[in-house]
Alliinase C-terminal domain-containing protein
Amino acid sequence: MYETYWKELGGKMDFTITGCQSLSYFANTKNLCWFLEPKLEQEIRNLHNNVGNAIVENRHVIVGTGSSQLILAALFALSETLNDPNPVNVVSAPPYYSSYPEMTDFLRSGLFKWAGDAYTFDKDEPYIEMVTSPNNPDGFIREPVVNRAKGMVVHDLAYYWPQYTAITSPADHDIMLFTVSKCTGHAGSRIGWALVKDEKVARKMVKFIQVNTIGVSKEAQLRAANIMEIISLSCQRSKPRELANFFEYSQNLMVERWNKLRNAIKNNELFRVSKFPLQFCNFTRDFTETYPAFAWMKCKEGMDCEKVFRGHKIVTRSGKRFGSGVEYVRVSMLSRDEEFDLFVQRLSNIHGIGN
């Protein structure tokens, strides 16, 4: 979806990396995150201050190969700190991000294990709760649900940007995860970052990335820094005339797409999507709805929604993968224009389902 914005900018965001540049593993030996490019750290802080979606003062910035690596780094840091002989339980409230279970159990770590539904977790044991807000897949704002003495929380805030939801206040949590993928659309650069309060936890997260990949690509970091600088510039009143405000541009696209989706199923009793309340956004200085990156669609009871969509050549992800039932599916709202329009057209043609 973001491709149209960056195409319109043309070569304005091009930059050159010379052959002798960024040869070392190290970026800043005086920084706790020694492989973090100073330019990227500065642009991360600038962007959050411009948008107002997260507190960056007195936070350690840690860069990762996407937020996926940072999720594992956070689980390692929190569980390793406990020095518990048993794996720490990792939970999340359904519908939860579909990759949490697989990521947690993939290496069969002795440090942590997937324990499932946060709503039903009743063990008197240490736990880590993953809180995605706005949530993937359903787009709702989330808070921790377990809230016990032995608990630790990781806030995955990949979608807490103005094109998706109202920025009601700067997030202020112990561990906050963000990603270029969902902020700017540059998923292929594989850049994520964490804002971490506790220095010991931050050091352990850095240690995980050091052992795992010996840092993060300098080229990707420099590209991400350049992109963030342009986005921050686009939000300024004194910006160049030809530079559209990135978040306003992106929100307008999201509004248009959600309107198309809702119109496509307006008179269709087979499908349902959530409605979201108006909230005042401190960034846009206006009231706005939530426009999630994914549509969490529900079919009539008893229907396998993924199977129904597949029969009409629409690729979705079943609710089973998110800890919910087969009557739900997640549909991406971020595809290219022609793909999204084709999706809406095929969806509009579904009027009845045979046995």
Residues 246-348 form a domain with the Aspartate Aminotransferase, domain 1 fold (CATH 3.90.1150.10). The longest strand covers residues 60-65. The first helix runs from residue 3 to 9. The radius of gyration is 21 Å.
